[in-house]
């Protein structure tokens, strides 16, 4: 256990670290998540983050509809 001056320094360092984390957490996570969704389903218009997920979605939710050309070469 740290005592005396070490304890004070440790507390100050921890306070600075917590302030930095709090400042970084202030960013809007909804906007960041929306920016990550780049692929839009042509049938139901839902958004997916990558082609693999998009292909899995398309095959499970829209089995009767023909697979789009851009998904035919994607490995699932």
Structural write-up:
- The protein is mainly α.
- The chain has helices spanning 5-25, 29-36, 51-61; strands at residues 39-40, 47-48.
- It has a two-stranded antiparallel sheet.
- Strand 1 and strand 2 form a beta hairpin.
- It is rod-shaped.
- The model has no long low-confidence stretch (mean pLDDT 86).
Number of helices: 3
Poorly predicted ranges: none
The largest sheet is:
2 strands, antiparallel
Strand order of the largest sheet: 1-2
Look at the structure and give the mean pLDDT: 86
Q: How far from one another are the termini?
A: 53 Å
Helix content: 40-55%
Along the chain, the helix and strand elements come as HHEEH
- CA-atom Rg in angstroms: 24 Å
Structural class: mainly alpha
Percent in strands: 5-15%
The general outline is rod-shaped
Number of DSSP-assigned strands = 2
Compose a concise summary of this entry.
This protein has 76 residues and is mostly helical.
Chain-wise SSE layout:
Blueprint (H helix, E strand, L loop, with lengths): L4 H21 L3 H8 L2 E2 L6 E2 L2 H11 L15
Antiparallel strand pairs: 1-2
